[in-house]
Amino acid sequence: MEFSFDIHGYLKPYGKVITDLDSCSAGFVEPFEPDSTRHQLFQGYVSYNEDLKQLLGSIRYAQWIDGSFISTKVNPADIDLVSFIDHQIVDQHETDLARFIAQTGKETYGVDAYIVRMYPEEHPYYIRTQSDLVYWEHWFSQSMKNRRKRRFPKGFLEITY
Fold first, then answer.
1. CA-CA distance, 63 to 61, in Å (whole number)?
2. Considering only CA atoms, which of 104, 38, 29, 100 is closest in space to residue 63?
3. Strand order of the sheet with strand 15-18?
4. First vs last C-alpha separation in the chain
5. In angstroms, rounded to a whole number, what is the distance separating the alpha carbons of residues 144 and 56?
6. Is the preceding peptide bond at 31 cis, omega within 30 degrees of 0?
7. Which residues pair with 5 in a beta bridge?
8. Each residue of 22-60: pLDDT tens digit?
9. Most C-beta atoms within 10 A of its C-beta, which of 30, 31, 106, 154?
10. Alpha-carbon torsion (30, 32, 36, 38), positive or negative
11. What are 127-145's pLDDT values in tens digits?
């Protein structure tokens, strides 16, 4: 898969772009010089998911990836991501999952990571799933405000593990 970018360096098409790990590497790591932070960040990202998959076993999860890593910026500081995992699995592994989020995830893997509990439609908390999806899609689909207080549309990646 070949990725394209707008004049601001943001991923196009705007919104969610479904891809896979190999395409992510080919589009956001391999084109950059080896001394770019992207190579080390991507290794941390791969390790993050290897460790997360080891904890979760055969449970499938979707992950949205965003931030300057998904742009033309040469040296991003981290990889922003949110993983969408079945609520029962999150509840079952809540203590162990703490190392995969926020500051711990950033220190260990170089990712600014969050986890969203996914509730099925018939669950009383399904509204939380809907609310979280809207929140993250809104947050990931636009840039931070620039000096003129303007935001720009952008794309983000979805990879399913």
1. 7
2. 100
3. 15-18, 155-160, 62-66, 79-86, 111-118
4. 18
5. 33
6. no
7. 11
8. 999 999 999 999 999 999 999 999 999 999 999 999 999
9. 154
10. negative
11. 999 999 999 999 999 999 9
DSSP 81-122: EEEEEEHHHHHHTHHHHGGGSHHHHHHHHSEEEEEEEEPPTT
* pLDDT higher than 90, residue 102: no
The token duo for 22 is 């190999």
Q: How far is CA 13 from CA 4, 5, 57, 88, 107, in A?
A: 8, 8, 33, 33, 31
pLDDT for position 1: 87
- Using the structure block, give the residue that is written with the tokens 């772009």: 17
Residues, the chain, total? Answer: 161
Tokens encoding 19:
């891809």
